[in-house]
Amino acid sequence: MSTVLAALEKPTQRPNVPHFSSGPCAKRPGWSPAALNDAVVGRSHRSKPGKAKLEEVITLSKEILGIPEGYRLGIVPASDTGAVEMALWSLLGERGVDVLGWESFGKEWVTDITKQLKLGDVRVMEAGYGELPDLTKVDTDRDVVFTWNGTTSGVRVPDGEWIPNDRKGLTICDATSAVFAMELPWSKLDVVTWSWQKVLGGEGGHGMIALSPRAVARLESYKPSWPLPKIFRMSKGGKVIEGIFVGETINTPSMLAVEDALDSLRWAKSIGGLQGLLSRSKANLDAVVEWQAKSAWCGFLAKEEKTRSNTSICLAITSPEVAALDAAGKAEFVKKMTSLLEKEKVAFDIASYRDAPPGLRVWGGATVETSDMKALLAWLDYAFAVASAK
User: Fold this and answer.
1) Across the strands, what pairs with 235?
2) How far is CA 224 from CA 99, 144, 181, 219, 227, in A?
3) pLDDT digits over 207-265, tens only?
4) Alpha-carbon span 5 to 136, nearest angstrom
5) What is the band of 81 on the pLDDT scale with cuts at 50, 70, 90?
6) Do residues 310 and 281 make contact, with C-beta atoms less than 8 angstroms apart?
7) CATH 3.40.640.10 domain position(s) in the chain
8) Assigned superfamily of 18-26+273-389
9) Which CATH code fits 38-269?
10) Per-residue pLDDT for 4 more than 60?
11) Cβ pair 315, 359 in contact under 8 A
């Protein structure tokens, strides 16, 4: 390995907050448990103050994200996974489906559609880690299921130009690591799902689902041939259950988690709303891009610049010595690096996702301070040098 890197001195500056996990993610700057003091605990979520909190989450989310008039937004169980599966089980089957998979979670939706729902007319479009399927081949007269940002691959859809306004099918988008950090073309998306635990730095267990008028029309006109569990039901008697979208949750929510989400949303509004969030996340990616351009050992997993994620920033170790190792050897090398960083209390939980190629995954969402990101990057060089010398 490079003698220059091997002789690198230990950095003197550490990130103030060493939380770079891609979910649950870092809390907003300045957060403390005191932020939850106003939580409606010991009360029913159906009580007047409990429902008011749930409604405020919905209202603030719509306002900050700029969700169009006519779209419905609800709080649902089981995080983003629950929200996506609610959409798949409730809406699919009316027509053929194109499902896109280029990372772990997108491939899970492929499994749900082909092996659990066992739909007959399905086209699966897959790509390896670091790449996107050919979006020009997607048929939007069919239903389309895809992730906007590949949380485990660091590859994002660059825009919505491939989705026509006069499509006949529904577009169902898992946007959990994109919402609040990337511009979404809402008019081109019929179902959008996310959780609080990504860009908002919230707690797990709760999902959000946004439905366009077209998606609501499908709910009211189409009944799947399979039974729907209670927590998936969004319509009754041919009508959408409106209560879901005004804070009447399907099951009991954690009011502590609700209060935490409200705290994050209020913080987001205080820093300029969506544009403030976008700017903070972009600054984090820009810091990594500047550092990587000078790196002798690190590259982006995303093959094309325009598809690089600014939230789940996935890095590959490109030095010839490490690249020549087999998968087990690469994983062991990454483990040496991440173990050192954890021991030094510099960064926690930044190894790549278990199904992804061995490498690093650093969260760059809006709750991460760019000064902390820059401090981390110097430590990545140091950790690489130490792991190389062993």
Assistant:
1) 240
2) 18, 17, 34, 9, 8
3) 999 999 999 999 999 999 999 999 999 999 999 999 999 999 999 999 999 999 999 99
4) 43
5) very high
6) yes
7) 38-269
8) Aspartate Aminotransferase, domain 1 (3.90.1150.10)
9) 3.40.640.10
10) no
11) yes
**Sheet of 312-317: strands edge to edge?**
298-300, 312-317, 360-363
Cα dist from 291 to 300, 341, 381, whole Å: 11, 18, 10
Burial bucket for residue 264 (CB in 10 Å: 0-12, 13-18, 19+): buried
CB atoms within 10 A of CB 299: 16
| pLDDT digits 0-9 by tens, 363-381 | 999 999 999 999 999 999 9
Q: Please give the Cα distance from 26 to 363 (Å, whole number).
A: 8
Beta carbons within 10 angstroms of residue 253's beta carbon:
21
Are 102 and 127 within 8 A, CB to CB?
yes
CA distance 34 to 46: 24
Beta strands in 158-290 (DSSP E): 171-174, 191-195, 206-211, 235-236, 239-240
Distance CA 93, CA 95 (A): 5
| Nearest Cα residue to 184 out of 35, 76, 350, 71 | 71
The pairing of strands 171-174 and 155-156 is unpaired
Q: For the chain, where are the E strands, in sequence order?
A: 72-77, 97-101, 122-126, 143-147, 149-150, 155-156, 171-174, 191-195, 206-211, 235-236, 239-240, 298-300, 312-317, 360-363
Q: Enumerate the CATH 3.90.1150.10 domain ranges in the chain, comma separated.
A: 18-26+273-389
pLDDT in tens, 282-339: 999 999 999 999 999 999 999 999 999 999 999 999 999 999 999 999 999 999 999 9
pTM for the full predicted model: 0.97
pLDDT confidence tier of residue 390, bands split at 50, 70 and 90: confident
Q: For Cα atoms 62, 179, 169, give the angle at the middle one, nearest 5 degrees.
A: 85
Helix 213-221 and helix 79-91: axis angle, to 10°? 50
Beta bridge partners of 143: 97
Q: What angle do CA 350, 355, 359 make, to 5 degrees?
A: 40
